[in-house]
Amino acid sequence: MMKMKLIAAAASFAVSGNVWAQDLQITVTNLTQGMYFTPLVIAAHSADASMFVVGESASPELQAIAEGGDISGMGTLLTSVSADLVENPADGLLAPGARIETSLSSADGNDYLSLASMLLPTNDGFVGLNSWKIPTEPGTYSFTLNAYDAGTEANDEIVNGAGAPGEPGIPAAPGMNAGIGATGVTSTEDNVLVHIHRGNLGDDDLSGGKSDLDNTVHRWLNPVARITIVVN
Amino acid sequence: MTIYRNPSKKSAVKILVAASLLLFVSACDDDDEGLMPEPEPMLYRYQVTVANLTNAQPLSPFAVVLHNEGMLWNIGESANDAMENLAESGDNSQVLGLGVALAGVSGEDIIMPGSSETIEISLADAMPTYLSGATMLVNTNDAFTGINGLNISQMALNESISMVMGSYDAGTEKNSELAETIPGPAAGGEGYNADRDDVDFIAAHPGVVTMDDGLAQSVLTQAHRFDNPTIRVTVTRIE
């Protein structure tokens, strides 16, 4: 379903005399009770690169993540700008309440950290971190992340297996606790720029209603993730 | 529950406080017993002020504990029985009695929306490493908020730490929002129930749905909805 290119960031970035290169240990925790994270892409990149910007249109690569969980395009894009990246560290979905620890070595000039992963089940929701300046001072840094809406697809909340960019619908509800037969919450996307996700609506009718999502299971409040970064 | 340790002959020490550093300068042995002044017990005292930021979620009496190890809860892990009890019923007695608690104090009353309460807690002789606290959002099935293992070991006298905190779901009771399952004034239903019929791990709370937003069986109304953060906590070392 998703093509994973695993670029293990081992200690192979031993560029001699590189005073700015940094070894990072990164832990991402899914704080939600009922939302899954698709394979994460985490990258250290230069100041002039970004995976997304709030208030701007999503790139096709971000759209592919937010609508279908596909990080391959973003991986290619990041590699083309010499970013250091970790793809799919959880080897699949990061379940509600679960955490993943990974490491990343950032090369000289790749001083900013970003992250993206789709939230399932949503139409085009994703958890994101945009261009966090990696501190030069060794230490442990911890903060929370919010859920965003890519603005590329109407939040109809119909689980129909559609994950390709531009196709309406939600690709999957991994918890196997969604309904069927919904008529759709909305058919339009009013804000087509990246914005804070307003959350799933859901309903209490798993065999009909407006939404296939369960309003006691598939809602969330921000923040949705905690990231802890150890700068060595 | 504050534990006071009596200085024994062998452990009697004179404690000098210099620039907020503790210097243990001279331990006296049995022979010197009569010559040393009786040491003043060193007391570490903290004020914890909790403000309820919600619209209509009264908070159960806030439990504060001092401890050197452990956490009250861990995201992704099962709630311990003490936290299940607190999150489902508001009863904080088991949290206050946790084995790791060096001291435990309960707030005097329910903290109503818009109100705040200040609780004092102290420990003699040894500076505690962590301060934790927890309270239930009572018009819910099993929502709670609090602070979890705040490191206070470097706090100087009169120093304050202030923070806002979001809410968690104990994961021990389904968020049915049925009247018989919610103990708060919105429902007057059951509190603690030993059954664990939900995901059985602690996570961030998704919020309440309510009858006004699509959950027909809910006893709650739009007034009971909440968002993060739900409390402001200020911890001050006062002695």
Automatic annotation (TrEMBL), chain B:
Keyword Signal appears in the UniProt entry: yes
Q: Which UniProt keywords apply?
A: Signal
**Which range is the signal sequence, renumbered to this chain?**
1-29
Domain of life of the organism in this record? Bacteria
PROSITE patterns registered for this protein in UniProt: PROKAR_LIPOPROTEIN
The UniProt entry, under NCBIfam families, shows: NF038123_dom
Protein name per its UniProtKB record: Uncharacterized protein
